[in-house]
Amino acid sequence: MATRRRPPGPNGLPILGNTHQFARDQFGFAERLAAAYDDIAYYEVLGRPFYQLNDPDAIERVLVHNNENYVKGDFVQGLLRPIVGGGLLTSEGETWRGQRRRLQPSFTPDRVRGYADAMVDATEQKLAEWDDGEVTDVHEDMMEVTLAIIADTMFGMTVDEEVETVGAALETAMRQTEKVWEGFIPKRVPTPGRRRYRRAIDALNEVVYRIIRARKADPSDDVVTALLEGEDDVDDEQLRDQVMTILLAGHETTALALTFTLHLLARHPDIAGRLRAELDEIDGTPTATDVLGAPYLDRVITESMRLYPPVHTINREATEPDTLAGYEIPAGATVTMSQWAIHRDDRFYDDPRTFDPDRWADGLRERLPDFAYFPFGGGPRRCIGDRFALLEAKLVLATVLPRYEFDLVGPAEFDLLASITARPADPVEMRVRER
Ligand code: HEM
Question: What is the pLDDT of residues 201-213, one digit of tens each?
Answer without folding.
Answer: 888 898 888 888 8
